[in-house]
């Protein structure tokens, strides 16, 4: 595999490894050996080390003294902690959209994502469904206009994607439940109903958390 600009080489390597972790190709506690990655991807060892630091910052791996990098282990505590935090971040974004949209055309990206989510659900395409779930947040960034919020979400998104992928791979039927909640969220945003926005997003993250915990318990 050959990587090129515009993304930095380390970012591209990190993205490649993150995809493998999210899909479960690289298992929890599995070691990621710099030399093997360097040879497999035909890149420099320095770029791989930088990529591993990016993955550590995104909570997909841990780097241990004298043991190197390994895929982070999923625990109920980690799942509950991240879901609780993401719930508040989702609410901040959605309220920003609800308060600041002026013309319906500004909401068109969310409607387009909704249609893609419906199509992914019909195909039972978990990967596309998870990716577009986070594209919803990216469509909301301009309304929030908060670089710190955006950076925080982008760093946490891979871990949350990993959780969703684990849950939905085991129970694809749950995609339809998420679609229903997303539809309710759009209605609340259009109505500028900030109370309902909070209610729907808390339901969404609680449902997500329950699904991931059930998937972990099922092994």
Features:
9 helices; 3-stranded antiparallel sheet; disordered N terminus; Arc Repressor Mutant, subunit A; mainly alpha; single chain; 2 domains; 219 residues
Provide a short characterization of the protein structure.
With 219 residues, the protein is mainly alpha-helical. It has two domains: 9-71, Winged helix-like DNA-binding domain superfamily/Winged helix DNA-binding domain (Arc Repressor Mutant, subunit A, Orthogonal Bundle); 76-218, GntR ligand-binding domain-like (Four Helix Bundle (Hemerythrin (Met), subunit A)), CATH 1.20.120.530. It is 74% helix and 5% strand.
What do you see in this structure?
This protein has 219 residues and is mainly alpha-helical. It folds into two domains: 9-71, Arc Repressor Mutant, subunit A (Orthogonal Bundle); 76-218, Up-down Bundle (Four Helix Bundle (Hemerythrin (Met), subunit A)). It contains nine helices and three strands. It has helices spanning 9-23, 34-41, 45-57, 76-100, 108-123, 126-144, 147-170, 175-190, 194-218, and strands at 31-32, 61-64, 68-71. A hairpin with a 3-residue loop joins strand 2 (61-64) and strand 3. Helix 5 packs antiparallel against helix 8. The longest helix is centred in the middle third of the chain and has 25 residues, at 76-100. Mean pLDDT is 92; it is low at 1-6.
């Amino acid at each position: 595999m050959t990587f090129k600009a515009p993304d930095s080489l380390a970012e591209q390597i990190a993205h490649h490894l993150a995809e493998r972790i999210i899909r479960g190709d690289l298992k929890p506690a599995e070691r990621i050996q710099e030399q093997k990655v360097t040879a497999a991807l035909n890149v420099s060892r320095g770029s791989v080390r930088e990529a591993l630091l990016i993955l550590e910052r995104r909570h997909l791996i841990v780097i241990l003294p004298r043991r190197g990098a390994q895929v982070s282990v999923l625990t109920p505590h980690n799942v509950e902690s991240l879901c609780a935090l993401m719930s508040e971040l989702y609410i901040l974004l959605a309220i920003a959209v609800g308060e600041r949209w002026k013309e319906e055309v500004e909401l068109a990206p969310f409607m387009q994502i909704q249609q893609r989510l419906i199509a992914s659900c019909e195909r039972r395409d978990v990967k596309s469904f998870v990716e577009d779930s986070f594209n919803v947040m990216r469509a909301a960034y301009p309304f929030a206009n908060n670089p710190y919020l955006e950076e925080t979400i982008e760093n946490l998104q891979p871990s949350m994607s990993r959780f969703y992928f684990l849950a939905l791979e085991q129970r694809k039927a749950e995609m339809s439940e998420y679609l229903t909640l997303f539809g309710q969220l759009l209605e609340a945003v259009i109505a500028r109903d900030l109370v309902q926005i909070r209610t729907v997003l808390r339901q969404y993250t609680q449902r997500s958390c329950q699904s991931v915990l059930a998937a972990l318990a099922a092994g």
